[in-house]
Design goal:
With about 325 residues, this protein is α+β, with helices and mostly antiparallel strands. The chain has 9 helices and 15 strands. The structure holds biotin.
Length: about 325
């Protein structure tokens, strides 16, 4: 989805010395210079500012600090620039909006991002705290031509992909907790909710939802989350520029999706899971069909099951559910 403003931004972002002349932009977009000027005014109203120099043209002086759909779209690399980003100030749930867009036959892939959600959904029917506009509420929608069994490891792969991005690209020591949590300092930093429609022989579509606490303030958290949740800003002391962060993260997720569909990710998947697994080697408990199972976490198998080693060294495979890390000194 490339609006005129997005194209202007892209030119300004990629200009060698930062300046782009009005006449160049007018020619590039086949519009008049007056029209370029009015688009620049629209961009100013959207939180951008420019330095304008005679003969040289315009240079970006200021970009919006809060999430900007125009800026985000302009920051996407050319490989993914056609992926539409549907942006909302506030919406019930980006996953629900993604489902509505799918029902209206919106072409995939596409992204839905909101500054806040009124009915953010978590796993197992839980709510996802979504009132802090410093955080990220994102859904990406795909229609992979893959057999349904491939769904089993999709969220796990996305989890380590995002974890690797946060560690390597942003230098934030995040871990992944099977099956869908992202942890920082042993507290919940993010969660994933994948919702798919599956036919007998193939995945029809899938909505990958990610809630990531980026610049959220601990003071805004509801009392029941204060001790167990964190944000990047709270954990590192550094707030993050949401637009560049989100554009790079989106790129990483889209690249990761491509690797997943081409099945070129298996080796990396195994390596990254071992690298970022928050449970590895720890005693944990979980409920399977109402029955508690305890064991030492030994990673996952090829089908994405969590492996729990028993005292007799046999393995229990855990398919779904919440896992609790046993704290030393606690029963
Ligand atoms: C969990 O840990 O339980 C998963 C939380 C997933 C939350 C995200 S926020 C964006 C997307 N829209 C939703 O309603 N939920 C997901």
């Amino acid at each position: 989805m490339s609006s005129t403003e997005t194209t202007i931004l892209r030119e300004l972002l990629t200009a060698d010395d930062g300046f782009v002349s009005g006449s160049f932009l007018a020619e590039r977009l086949s519009v008049s210079r007056v029209s370029i000027w009015s688009h620049m005014e629209k961009l100013r109203a959207a939180g951008f500012d420019f330095e304008a120099r005679p003969r040289l043209g315009y240079r970006l002086k200021k970009t919006p600090t809060s999430l900007s759909p125009l800026f985000l779209q302009a920051l996407l690399p050319s490989k993914w620039e056609q992926v539409p980003v549907h942006f909302h100030e506030s919406i019930d749930s980006t996953n629900s909006e993604a489902e509505r867009l799918l029902a209206g036959n919106s072409p995939t892939p596409f992204a839905v991002i909101a500054r806040a959600q009124t009915r953010g959904r978590g796993r197992l029917g839980r709510q996802w705290f979504s009132a802090d506009s410093g955080n990220l509420y994102l859904s990406l929608v795909f229609q992979p031509r893959l057999p349904p069994r491939r769904m089993q490891t999709f969220t796990l792969w996305m989890g380590v992909t995002i974890c690797d991005f946060l560690n390597q690209n942003q230098n934030i020591p995040v871990q992944v907790k099977w099956p869908n949590d992202l942890l920082l300092d042993h507290k919940k930093l993010g969660g994933m909710l994948t919702e798919a429609r599956v036919d007998s022989d193939r995945i029809r579509d899938l909505v990958f939802g990610l809630g990531l606490n980026v610049n959220g303030q601990p003071g805004n958290l509801p009392p029941d989350l204060k001790d167990t949740a964190t944000s990047i800003a709270a954990g590192t002391g550094h707030p993050i520029g949401l637009n560049r962060f989100t554009a790079t993260l989106l790129t990483r997720i889209l690249d990761g999706y491509q690797d997943f569909t081409q099945d070129t990710h298996q080796e990396t998947f195994r390596r990254l899971w071992t690298q970022y697994d928050a449970l590895l080697g720890h005693p944990v408990t979980t409920l399977q069909g109402g029955t508690p199972i305890a064991g030492t976490a030994r990673g996952i198998d090829d089908e994405g099951y969590l492996l729990l080693e028993q005292p007799d060294h046999s393995f229990q495979r855990v398919s779904a559910g919440d896992v609790t890390l046993k704290k030393p000194g606690h029963a």
